Amino acid sequence: MLPISTHVSIPDEEIELTAVRAQGAGGQHVNKVSSAIHLRFNILGSSLPPFYKERLLALRDHRISREGTIIIKAQDSRSQERNRALALERLQELIRSVAVVRPPRRPTKPTKGSTQRRLDSKTKRARLKSLRGKPDEQ
């Protein structure tokens, strides 16, 4: 079980972990050992509460496919066990991030002083620009 909060956890059967070969340079060892981990988690087919599912599907994250599958690749460590732990931590972190309900933003008005300063600077600038023209001939 992967704990998300005190009341929510994900059964191990819902998380698909696959060992693959890591990408990039690494010498002789990297070509013969599958130490990287591909984690796949189907949001729609999971036992998560509807609140989590809706928020995850609304999230614009490159790790979430159009079909509603979270795909995480962990290849930071040379150890397969460490990469498995990293992938599970990232999944846990992603799901916990949608559980945080942020308060709605209240738009603020500019202060009277800042509005007055802005208008004064606009007037000053307009006066300066009007003096740049050719002098009137009489």
From TrEMBL:
The keyword Hydrolase appears for this protein: yes
Top-level taxonomic group: Bacteria
SUPFAM superfamilies assigned to the protein according to its UniProt record, in alphabetical order: Release factor
NCBIfam families reported for this sequence: PRK09256.1
Keyword Secreted: no
Pfam families per UniProt: RF-1
Name of this protein: Peptidyl-tRNA hydrolase domain protein
Single GO biological process annotation from the record: rescue of stalled ribosome
Keywords of this entry: Hydrolase
Region feature (Disordered): 99-138
Gene3D superfamilies: 3.30.160.20
Family classification: Belongs to the prokaryotic/mitochondrial release factor family.
GO terms, molecular function: peptidyl-tRNA hydrolase activity; ribosome binding; translation release factor activity
Domain annotation Prokaryotic-type class I peptide chain release factors: ranges: 21-37
